[in-house]
């Protein structure tokens, strides 16, 4: 049986969800009225029901994110919401709190959010055995680790392939709480990682004065789709439930084209996960919508710097270098790509991210609204593309159609039209009318075919038309149009009605959890989650950070991202070029907030602690076993 490969797009709201489906998404994920990890992207049940109906028309799926941690007083409300989501036809829930696995639920499919510690084969296999159908893998995994998980269990694997990256292990960032008492695990991330920091060494010396030291580039794994499919991934996820419609349509369309090219070459093994095909009136390019520059993160292991320290704002598309200054304008390489109204991005002479808006282009001179002196050689990006945005925002920039074959024949009392779509759904409509021969000798068939082919604003495109008459019957074109319109309207209803939703009833299990002691990073915040873990053999359970934060002394982040590596001071990978060691502890400072950095070189991880934490620092050479290393 062929494996279905899916593109999964974000839906901030109904309009953007429908736009994602039109652009070629096989599934969308959307927030409910509550309990989603983006409090600014909630949706009413009515809108989700509408989303479900539209998606199912194309055999695309709708997943609802219920991925915050839950408190005891929210459990009943959450359960009620899940029943409502099941009743309106939602395909699956994406959850992180194991309390949901403990509830008496309808037979709805459950996916494990990336916040559910999906970083190794043991944890992912446990979740599969507990009844989860899919795991959204941790972003920081490499291809070998993904393959290892795939070989250990037959759970569906979903992987982020584009969009913003969470610098922390997903679900294990507590900087929002420590920095201002807003919980990322409750949908209110304050994005402390995007703030500017000072970096201070153990002697009190400021190494870097004002940089976005935890801000990293955005993810682009579009070239890795074949490798990820080979490693076992079947769903490619686009981050961005807070992004605009241009971003959603552009990224979805770009990945759709990439994936379709792969599927066409591998029709024996893989197939598209939904129906229809999209017709584009623009050329998708991911770097033309919001991005901070791109990285493949760790999918090919640690091999390059991934930070974007200048700015957390959009860098956009590389245009070229500044060649010269003329009057109050710039002569820029590839200036012909630019348009009036575009936004430019560059790093100014102070090393800060800066920008300007184009007022007019005269010959080869780009004249900004506000001229800013820049040195020749400055690299110029476009981070707002006025023409492109206008084009993509149009409703017809991406139009999705389902293939249909029409067969128009005669009956004893008139005519009938049979419509069969690409998935085999059928609708047959008869037209009772007195049959008259056409006055002209000219065949009526070409004209009937021409009018049957006019599908207009319906979700169908006609791939094949057969007209079989025993005589040259006259038929008013209005009747042909009417029967075509009715048959296609009914076919829409038939497709939605005959949509098959996978169902799965969770039953309670008691197989052993991979570890017996859970620290606060497991985010246990209610009695049901506690009961779930205890039944699976866990003996010690620490409360979630939100319930036990001890201000000033907590570990607020664990990450694969490493400030030492970004500085070229990594004792493992940059040993030959690193020069003098940094004097630890290194401290990050933003306003009144200070954090200590601790480097665990063996697992290749960095921890961020609040300033009053009492930490022991082990020399990196000792950690890595370079005991005889002279320095």
From TrEMBL:
Residues 380-495 form the Peptidase U32 collagenase domain. InterPro entries: Pept_U32_collagenase, Peptidase_U32, RNA/ubiquinone_mod_enzymes. Pfam families: DUF3656, Peptidase_U32. PANTHER family: 23S RRNA 5-HYDROXYCYTIDINE C2501 SYNTHASE, PEPTIDASE U32 FAMILY. This is U32 family peptidase. It comes from Arcicella aquatica.
């Amino acid at each position: 049986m062929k494996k279905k490969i899916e593109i999964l797009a974000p839906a901030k709201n109904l309009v953007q969800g429908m736009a994602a489906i039109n652009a070629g998404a096989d599934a969308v994920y959307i927030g409910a009225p509550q309990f989603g990890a983006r409090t600014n992207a909630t949706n009413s049940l009515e809108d989700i029901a509408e989303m479900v109906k539209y998606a199912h028309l194309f055999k695309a799926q709708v997943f609802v994110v219920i991925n915050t941690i839950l408190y005891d007083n929210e459990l009943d409300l959450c359960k009620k919401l899940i029943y409502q989501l099941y009743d309106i036809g939602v395909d699956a829930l994406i959850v992180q709190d194991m309390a949901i696995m403990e509830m008496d639920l309808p037979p709805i499919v459950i996916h494990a959010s990336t916040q559910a510690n999906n970083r190794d084969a043991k944890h992912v296999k446990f979740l599969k055995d507990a009844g989860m159908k899919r795991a959204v893998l941790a972003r920081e995994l490499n291809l070998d680790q993904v393959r290892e998980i795939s070989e250990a269990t037959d759970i569906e694997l979903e992987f982020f392939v584009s969009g913003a990256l969470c610098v922390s292990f997903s679900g294990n960032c507590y900087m929002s709480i420590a920095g201002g008492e807003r919980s990322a695990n409750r949908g209110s991330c304050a994005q402390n990682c995007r703030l500017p920091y000072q970096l201070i060494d153990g002697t009190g010396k400021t190494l870097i004065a004002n940089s976005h030291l935890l801000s990293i580039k955005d993810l682009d794994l579009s070239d890795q789709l074949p490798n990820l499919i080979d490693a076992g991934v079947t769903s490619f996820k686009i981050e961005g439930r807070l992004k605009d419609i241009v971003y959603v349509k552009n990224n979805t369309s770009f990945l759709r084209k990439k994936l379709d090219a792969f599927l066409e070459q591998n029709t024996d093994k893989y197939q598209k996960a939904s129906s229809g095909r999209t017709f584009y009136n623009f050329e998708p390019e991911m770097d033309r919508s919001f991005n901070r520059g791109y990285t493949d993160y760790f999918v090919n292991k640690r091999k390059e710097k991934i930070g974007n320290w200048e700015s957390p704002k959009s860098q956009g598309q590389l245009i070229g270098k500044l060649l010269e200054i003329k009057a109050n304008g710039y002569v820029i390489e590839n200036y012909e790509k630019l348009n009036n109204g575009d936004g430019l991005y560059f790093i100014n002479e102070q090393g800060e991210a800066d920008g300007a808006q184009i007022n007019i282009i005269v010959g080869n001179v780009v004249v900004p609204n506000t001229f800013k002196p820049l040195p020749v050689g400055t690299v110029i990006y476009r981070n707002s593309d006025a023409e492109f945005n206008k084009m993509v925002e149009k409703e017809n920039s991406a139009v999705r159609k389902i293939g249909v074959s029409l067969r128009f024949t005669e009956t004893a009392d008139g005519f009938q039209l049979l419509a069969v779509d690409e998935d085999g759904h059928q609708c047959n409509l008869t037209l009772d009318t007195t049959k008259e021969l056409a006055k002209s000798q000219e065949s009526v068939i070409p004209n009937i075919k021409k009018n049957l082919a006019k599908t207009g604003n319906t979700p169908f495109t006609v791939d094949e038309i057969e007209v079989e008459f025993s005589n040259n019957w006259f038929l008013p074109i209005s009747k042909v149009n009417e029967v075509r319109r009715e048959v296609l309207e009914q076919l829409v209803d038939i497709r939605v009605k005959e949509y098959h939703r996978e169902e799965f009833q969770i039953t309670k299990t008691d197989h052993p959890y991979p570890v017996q002691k859970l620290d606060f990073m497991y985010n246990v915040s209610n009695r049901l989650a506690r009961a779930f873990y205890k039944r699976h053999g866990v003996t010690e359970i620490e409360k979630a950070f939100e319930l036990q934060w001890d201000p000033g002394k907590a570990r607020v982040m664990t990450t694969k991202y490493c400030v030492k590596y970004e500085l070229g001071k990594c004792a493992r990978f940059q040993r030959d070029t690193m020069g003098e060691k940094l004097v630890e502890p290194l401290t990050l400072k933003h306003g009144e907030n200070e954090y200590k950095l601790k480097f665990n070189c063996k697992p290749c991880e960095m921890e961020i602690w609040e300033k009053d934490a009492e930490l022991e620092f082990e020399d990196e050479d000792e950690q890595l076993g370079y005991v005889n290393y002279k320095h």
